[in-house]
Write a structure and sequence with these properties.
The chain is mainly α. The chain folds into two domains: 51 residues, no CATH class; 119 residues, AhpD-like, CATH 1.20.1290.10. The protein is 60% helix and 0% strand. It comes from Amycolatopsis acidiphila. One of its GO terms (molecular function) is peroxiredoxin activity. This is Carboxymuconolactone decarboxylase family protein. InterPro entries: AhpD-like (IPR029032), CMD-like (IPR003779).
Length: 191
């Protein structure tokens, strides 16, 4: 249970109810971070708009590279909600989620491509406190993904740091998106 209660549908205002309805349709359940943030309508609106804009703008990197970097941040920061939700998103993107068991051995594991290894190492360097990103690392990422790709990867990693830290601070834990315990999210095209 989170440190702040979720805002029930009956107690939610019109905007939160709209967000809940869209989330339920899209994910099969209301993500708990939304239901906690709904206590502050302005931040719920800002979060929803921001997340949709970032999703729409993030088209430079291959989806597997973006998702594995975001997943790595969640693992490093111990955000079980983000790990759960991120696994579900990767499954829906058709990615191999069994390989996620090998994330800690990414540098030598055959389950990860060179591009994914670069992105995971960058996620580790950005998530470290203090950050340990090097000029050489960014130069190699630019050669691999171009400037737009580096910016997209950096933004996605920073955003997941924010999400994971908010969820951890508020005690928001996994919701069962991958196990089906909390909700059963249909694969795209099957709903």
């Amino acid at each position: 249970m989170s440190r702040l209660p979720v805002l029930s549908t009956k107690d939610a205002g019109p905007f939160a109810k709209l967000v809940y309805r869209i989330a339920r349709r899209r994910y099969g359940a209301i993500p708990e971070p939304f239901a906690v943030t709904a206590h502050h309508t302005g931040l719920l609106a800002a979060t929803a708009i921001h997340e949709l804009a970032v999703e729409k703008a993030s088209r430079t990197l291959p989806v597997n590279v973006r998702e594995i970097a975001v997943y790595r941040v969640a693992v490093r920061l111990g955000c079980s909600w983000c790990v759960d939700f991120g696994t579900m998103l990767q499954k829906h993107d058709g990615l191999d989620i069994e390989r996620l068991k090998h994330i800690d051995d990414y540098a030598t594991s055959p389950h990860f491509s060179r591009q994914e290894r670069l992105a995971i190492a960058y996620a580790d360097a950005m998530t470290a406190t203090p950050a340990t990103v090097t000029d050489e690392q960014v130069a190699e990422l630019e050669r691999e993904f171009g400037r737009k790709g580096v910016l997209e990867l950096t933004y996605q990693i920073a955003l997941e740091n924010q999400r994971s830290r908010i969820n951890s601070a508020l005690g928001i834990t996994d919701q069962g998106f991958t196990s089906g315990a909390a909700c059963r999210v249909p694969l795209p095209g099957l709903a």
